[in-house]
From TrEMBL:
Gene Ontology, cellular component aspect: mitochondrion
Gene Ontology MF terms in the entry: GTP binding; GTPase activity
Gene, per the UniProt record: MEF2_2
Keywords: GTP-binding, Nucleotide-binding, Protein biosynthesis
One GO process term, biological-process aspect: ribosome disassembly
Key word Cytoplasm present: no
Record InterPro entries: EFG_II, EFG_III/V, EFG_V, EFG_V-like, Ribosomal_Su5_D2-typ_SF, Ribsml_uS5_D2-typ_fold_subgr, Transl_elong_EFG/EF2_IV
Protein's recorded name: Ribosome-releasing factor 2, mitochondrial
Residues annotated as domain Translation elongation factor EFG/EF2: 61-206
Length: 306
């Protein structure tokens, strides 16, 4: 019975807005997303010990994002007969990377996804249809087709082609909508067609993984500073942003660094070892950044993709 788990998670999400619960459509698993390892450890402890929920937990996974690596175009033609009616659609589109630093000033003519920074443009799409050229195609049909194609793109952006993570920082321009007619233009056909075209374009765009980045503040005794810095710059793949003394104790150093979240799994025990248990840290996820190619290959290899 999954009801006790669902009720417990609903209660926790009301208390903690940073906790997100979703379901994997393919596996049926319940996915719980949080702000890091310690956050999810607390959630698991509360579910098992405080709320007495009988549940098993899988290994913790990092929630990556996917993004196009270069500009790519694709066209897909959809022909299918459903319930005795033929549906015909064709969509050509272009996908391109969108630099997060340029997104606010980007001149777009489409819908912007605030969560993942994607932009979908359909207003200037060429309508390839004999009916449209002859002036007999109803305006309502065109509006429905454009909306359906944009909806298909938005839906497909929720699942990338590398590992199935959401696509972020992508600019999608729908260039052409073909085979539109009053009789054969099904919104469902254009929605499915646009989704397939986007997947083809993403595969051709040399897609890349984006990894979540965290801002970590580490407090450690001066004697352990060298080991802490070496670990942050090395095994953690971090970038030290600032180094200060603690306001109350000059013998305590405070290191501010930006680190990939995946490299911080298990960091609490590592830090205890480096500082003889005298150091502490806090961190907050601040966004996503491009992953080095060799690190991406490791992730894909572990997922048996390459």
């Amino acid at each position: 019975d999954e009801r006790p788990l669902a009720e417990a998670l609903a209660s926790l999400t009301l208390e903690d807005p940073s906790l997100h619960v979703s379901a994997d459509a393919e596996t049926g698993q319940t996915l719980v997303s949080g702000m890091g390892e310690l956050h999810l450890d607390v959630v698991r402890d509360r579910l098992l010990n405080d709320m007495r929920v009988n549940a098993s937990f899988g290994a913790m996974r990092v929630a990556y994002r996917e993004t196009p690596g270069q500009v790519a175009r694709a066209a897909f033609e959809y022909v299918r007969e459903t319930a005795g009616r033929m549906a015909h659609a064709e969509v050509e589109l272009e996908v391109a990377p969108l630099d997060p630093e340029d997104e606010e000033g980007c001149d777009v003519k489409g819908e912007r996804d605030a969560a993942d920074g994607n932009v979908v443009e359909v207003a200037d799409a060429v309508v390839d249809s004999a009916a449209a050229n002859g002036g007999t195609l109803q305006g309502e049909v065109l509006r429905e087709v454009r909306a359906a194609a944009a909806g298909g793109v938005h839906g497909a952006l929720a699942r990338g082609v590398l590992l199935g993570f959401p696509v972020a920082h992508a600019r999608v321009r729908i260039l052409r909508l073909g085979h539109i007619s009053d009789e054969l233009s099904s919104p469902a056909a254009f929605r499915a067609c646009a989704a397939q075209a986007l997947q083809q374009a993403l595969r051709a765009s040399s897609p890349q993984l984006l990894e979540p980045l965290a801002r970590a503040a580490v407090r450690c005794p001066a004697g352990a500073l060298g080991a802490v810095l070496a670990d942050l710059n090395g095994a953690r793949r971090g970038r030290v942003l600032a180094l200060d003394e603690d306001a109350a104790d000059a013998e305590v150093k405070v290191v501010l660094a930006e680190v990939p979240l995946s490299a911080m799994v298990g960091y609490a025990s590592v830090l205890r070892s480096l500082s003889a248990g005298q150091a502490s840290f806090a961190m907050q996820v601040v966004g996503f950044g491009a992953m080095a190619q060799h690190e991406q290959q490791k992730v894909l290899s572990r997922a048996h993709v390459v």
